Model the fold of this input.
Amino acid sequence: MSAQPPPLARALIDRAAGERLRAGLLDDARADPAARVLVVRGDEAPLADPSRDATALQFAAVSEIPDGAVWAFLGRDGAGPVLCAAFAAGAPDPVAAPGGWAGLREVGGDLDDADAGVFVEALSLARWLIEAPHCPACGALAEVETAGWSRRCTACGREHFPRTDPAVIVAVESEDGERLLLGSNALWGQDRYSCFAGFVEAGESLEAAVAREVEEESGIRVASSSYRGSQAWPYPRSLMLGFRARAVADRDARADGEEIVQVRWFERAEIRVAFAGGSDVTLPGSASIAHALIREWAEERE
Done:
């Protein structure tokens, strides 16, 4: 995975961050006939007609966007500016969606790199724009600035930015490296397994968070860990930092009984069969970094 970033970490768009301070950027971009708009409603975006193409986003023209959107400048591609128009979940269909509406979890792994990058950027920004309209310091309304990338409080003047919370996600291999330990979360259905994950605490290093989370959830003490890659995961606003860790003692594996209800050691052949749909085990979807971590390990030795 170190040679191939996770699916949502291969963005091709130029974010053109240096333009955001320019007054009138959004108005100018919206007036550009080449502008493309990705509408985000809640955590969903519209898909193009699947009969004409593989899974792809349906972009709209500025003139197609109804009133009530919160706008943001995402950057530029080879054709022109790319914008986001954000609507709250449950709003009536803002634009046509020939392929229906879908969430990032559902289709992120099926999109090409350009669309996947735009979707994760737009969704991360749109959720903040819709869900955080007030100043967290004094509660007054905070107005959108820097083309959608900040808010300034109308009362106390504080400037606020989209929040990103770091979280570690860990593929734990056995002492000899020949098995992988996965856990089943209490909120999931039976026979669904994934890597161990958790937020980095205040004042904590990533390596310390890896050791703490793995031991808390699985009972395994970590002998070593290595960074494998990262991707944004806007549920609600995470940056997932992927690691692989080696167990000190395989026999220590046990579920914490609260968040994780079952842990299980898997061999590579079992993982490959599960990914191929040949077993009752359900593994993470292709949009997630957990999928990439597990697949990387499983395919190291065919």
Summary: The helical segments are 25-31, 104-107, 113-131, 206-218, 268-275, 289-298. The radius of gyration is 21 Å.
